[in-house]
Amino acid sequence: MRDEIRQVEDETVKWAMSDVAPMSDEAFERGRTALLARIDAEQPGEVVPLAPRRRRRIPVVAAAAAMVVIAGAALVGPSLMSRDKGPSVGSAAAAGLLNQAAGVVGDAHQGPGQYLYVLQYTRRAVKDDGYRWMFLADQSRITWIPADRRGTWLHRRIDTGERQWLIGSEKDLPPGFDRAEGEWRAEGGRWFGDEVPVSFTNPTAEYIAALPRDPRALYEKLRDEDRGGNLVLMVTSGLDTGMYPADVRSAVYQALTRVPGLEIVDRAAVLNSRTGTALGLTTHGVTSQIVIDPGTGEYLGSRSVQAEDAHGLKAGTVIGTSAIEIRVVSGMGEPY
Fold first, then answer.
1. What is the mean pLDDT of residues 114-123?
2. I need a labelling partner for 121 at 20 to 30 A (CA). Which of 64, 143, 152, 299 fits?
3. β-sheet bridge partners, residue 187
4. Do 214 and 251 form a contact (C-beta atoms < 8 A)?
5. Which of 14, 129, 22, 135 has the alpha carbon at shortest distance from 68?
6. Which of helix, strand or coil describes residue 190?
7. Per residue in 208-224, pLDDT tens?
8. DSSP string, 105-140
């Protein structure tokens, strides 16, 4: 634990000092000591709670030299500054894990005539607008993607009929309520033609080719596209398609290090019998999580967790999961 703290404060010292004039070794060590004291004051633990806690502001003591005052403010209170300008203490562990995953991410080999078999197990929330009823529905979504992305794709959705009721019961459903099932074939995977605009969550081969691989530029691109105020949710929705190659996923992981408030929330998150690390961002009372295997760089899926009591739901209630597996098969429609 102490080694992790040392890594955090070392990285923060490096960032803070990058924009100020050189200082003496004595001043540097004073800043290091102040930062370490700030970290030790926080509640220890490997798992960050789902609900964000309020950080204490640490007053900056006036110093004789203005340079020392500026450096001290950067060292003692980096979490008060914009994430666009450098890493915060709270998200340094998440950034380290994402960078680790970005360095090892790979692709399954797909030869000519073969298909990527993208299997997504979802437990999605279904509700009415007024939260009079709400349940989790189990569904399998399978997509066969040809090696030539311009070719014909097959997409199949199978609803198991299993429902986990969170609010209300079957009697509260409106007349004619039906399950969402079906099968679609389309060139380039454009199931709904131009009805749904091309975006990170609904990509085409051309869109993917044009995406910047530079993490900073990609972050700006994703932030410009994000309309719901939750970039993590948008990213997981896009990765769920199975379309993004390793170089894009690597850049996405690095781009996520710039997201303010992104924290490690579970180091042993289990999705469909596979275990990874969950990183979460809390907005509007819900923590959206991306789950990855930092050892392989594999994207495992996502979770949504209620971060506070609301709508009759208790904090900690899981209100949605998605588990992704990607394999290579020899033909369209073939099981893995």
1. 96
2. 152
3. 152
4. yes
5. 22
6. coil
7. 999 999 999 999 999 99
8. -------TT-EEEEEEEEEEEEE-TTSS-EEEEEEE
CA separation for the pair 15, 271 (Å, rounded): 35
Please report, for the chain, how many H helices and E strands are present, in that order: 8, 9
Q: Which amino acid is at 131?
A: Y
Closest among 304, 279, 259 to 48, alpha carbons compared: 279
Nearest CA to 318 out of 117, 134, 152 is that of 134
Query: What token pair was written down for 281?
Result: 């961002």
Q: Find the mean pLDDT for residues 103-113.
A: 93
Residue 234 parent element (H or E)? helix 231-239
| DSSP character at residue 176 | T
For residue 236 the two structure tokens come to: 């997981």
Position of tokens 């398609």? Answer: 241
Dump pLDDT digits (tens) for 268-316: 999 989 999 999 999 999 999 999 999 999 999 999 999 999 999 999 9
Instruction: Give Cα separations from 182 to 121, 331, 334 (angstroms).
Output: 15, 20, 17
Q: How far is CA 83 from CA 13, 25, 215, 260, 281, in A?
A: 15, 27, 14, 5, 14
Does the pTM surpass 0.90? The reply is: no
User: Phi and psi of 145, rounded to 5°?
Assistant: -110, 120
